[in-house]
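Job type: complex structure
Entries:
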Amino acid sequence: MRPMRAPRQHHETGAQSPALDVLAVGAGVAAVAAVTVICRYWLDVSNAATVSAAFLLVVLVVAATARLWAAVATSIAAVVTFNFFFLPPVGTLTIADPQNWVALLAFLAVSLIASQLSAAARTRATEAAARRDELARLFDLSRDILVMTDDGDARTTLARSVARRFHLSVVAMGLPASDEWTVFHGGTERVDIETREWTTTFAAAQATLEFDAHERTYAGHRIVTAGGHTFRLVPLRVGTRPIGVLATTGRTVEPGTLDTLAGLVAIAIERAELLEERKAAEVTRQSEALKTALLASLGHDLRTPLTAIRVAADNLQSSSLPQIDREDQAALIVVEVARLTRLFDNILEMARIDAGGVAAEARWTHPSEIVEAARAQVEPMLRGHTVTVTNTHDVPVLLDPRLTATALARVLENTAQYAPAHTPIDIQTAVTHEGLTVRVRDSGHGIAATDLPRLFDRFYRGAAAATRPAGTGMGLSIVRGLLDVVGGRVWAENAEGGGARFTIVIPAAVKDAVDDAGEV
Amino acid sequence: MASARILLVDDETAIQRAVGPLLRSHGYDVEITSTGESALTAFAAHEPDLMVLDLGLPDIGGVEVCRRIRAKSRVPIIVLSARSGEADKVNALDIGADDYVTKPFGPEELLARIRVALRRVATSAEAEGGVLAAGDLTVDYDRRRVLRDGAEIRLTPKEFELVSLLAHNHDRVLTHRVILKAIWGGNAVEQPEHLWTLVAAVRRKIERDPANPRYLLSEPWVGYRLSTTPPDSAD
């Protein structure tokens, strides 16, 4: 007997090979011979009914395991043997007694009908197994679809899943996009099908919706040849609305199953679209939130200096103001204008980063020059602090000096703002094989653990923002944005012994190679 | 009115440095603090005649300061707000701030609000319960009458309620919520359309030119005030 097969493997061997049938016939004939020998020469049975029952058993076994023709061949062998060895006159193929004619014909009829019934039952079992197998594949595919995420190309993943789950060598999924077709490939081979074929199939599916009861499918399947393969093109429908075309080849999949498969794939595509839309909506929402945050931040940061400038200017016009107050009001205006200027610089810088308008222009520069340029940019803010600079290996490096200085200036600005007045700020540069490393360390209170992960996020001003000095939450995000352009990195940490430490690393060529010992 | 004492509360040194001299040069006595706590302390130490309060304070927040001050004093409070703090501003007015100035503001704007608020305290002290005269308009609380140039204007009870509420709080901003609650009760605060209709009706009766009201002024998105000073001479 053939062993029971798991549904998954069943389909490949569902159509039994002829070799196995021949083997079954051989075994059948051998069994007939064995029965003959046993009955005739060993047990000495001569009762025709007993012998024919034994032969019938052999025929049924063959019918149960092999195809109809094998059973019929075995039946004929059994009939001939029965006649020759058991029906008198024994040893000839003639029959004397008309009664034995009836026995012989009855045997032949019973064995043929039994073979037929058995074969039909087996075909149905095979069909059921095949259906179960395809259902299992469809189930696996639907599970693939459910776990599909919105990252990467969901449609290619889908085409690959179809090919893998249904053991198809070529799967192509055509989706109409304005006047082109976007085709997603799966399977081991990639075959291009003519656009005309996609269009024809799709147009037909759009034009009519006809149910084919025999194949249990919606009509509209087409067979086309491309790249030496015969493809079956099936419309992908969501409900009854076609959204694309699925082409498969490699293994025969029942049309009804293909139709179901196409339905599943169509739902998956719709789902992928929905996920993408949701993602896009989320991105939009985030950028809206960003804009709102920007406006709120600007609202406050613009209004305060504007009010101060306006009132101070009015005060200056007043004749009753003492000279000392007059000077203070003038100084106030200067400071507030500087604050507004910084704010606008930040906004412009951020807009340039967002628009991809920042381009690096590498030049040979000494790290000390970069530090000097950065300090000059934020000189008024650093005034209240003692700044020390250490340049280890001040050799020329190839990088964009302006961009680097701007990034460093933003870090210094941030440090100056958050470190208490009159505390030291320490700047160290080092040149290594990696490029330029700049460390800025202050002696302030350090960075709160909750702020560390979001420190470089745009508009993030720290959990205790309200009690902190004024700031826009733009400076450090600009640092990150600028360094992104040149492949640099920046991070912050609390230094051992207190205070915050910012580290900037920018990859750069170095004039004369320096070993790691140069690192601070 | 000279030498009225003003407590200025703002954490921005720029505002302190600009507004302080502005108020002093107009003859006010100015005390400046930067936080909500210090504002409450300063208030308790020597009660000022008026408070200019920024809503974006670093510690307990301007709205909360406003609430605590109101719990024990009727001192006029003018809140400073940025446009982004619209909700805070209305909250502060709801719990009893008198007026607001939105940043960026000009000096004359702030000074005008301060003058009006100080005058209100002076006049309401003497006119409690009696009659309010504003320009050619007279509100007689006892007889429930409103006169313009001596001629009685007929108002429905609801209309008189609105006029009398605003008159009792003349020159203060009353928020929609406060007015709705006072006239229709707590359930009506979400139905501003009652108020619009009523205000339109009152304006038709008391204003000479209802399209350009002189008394019943609207503070867009915030509330209404009954102004006792002519609009063009906010002195």
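Summary: Residues 107-127 of chain B form the longest helix (21 residues). The CA atoms of residues 108 and 235 of chain B lie 9 Å apart.
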